[in-house]
Specification:
Aspartate Aminotransferase, domain 1, alpha+beta, globular, six-stranded antiparallel beta sheet, 4 helices
Length: 125
Amino acid sequence: MTYEEFNDICRSFLATSYVVQWGDSHVWKVGGKVFAIGGWEHVDKSAFTFKTSELNYHFLSDQDGYRPAPYFASRGMKWIQQYNAPSTEDEELIYYLKESHRIVSLGLTKKKQKELGLNQDQGEI
C-alpha cells in the first residue's frame, strides 16, 4: 500500500483529521486521538502503525511483516507496525485500520462520540 492509498482509506472513516508530524509521518486522528500513522521510520518500504485489541496485538506480534510498534510498544501500548508487507496484505491492513479507528473512537467520552456521530448504533436495543 502506498501512503496515498493509506491516506485515502483513513480519510474515508468518520470524524477523522490529518496532520503531518513526527518526522513527516502521515498521522490520522479521530476526536483528536491518534489511530493510525503512515511512515515514522525512514525506510524504503512503507510502514503503517495502528492500535489493536490485546488479542490481535499478541497474534500480529508473531507474524512476518508485523512487529510491536516502535515507541508505543515499549511503553506498554498495544500498537503494531506493519512494514515490508506485500500488496497482497492490503485488505488485512484495511481491516486493522478500521479496527484501530473503532477502538480509539470508543475511548472518547460518550459526549464526544455523540458530537462526532460515532458509535451511535452500539448498545441500543
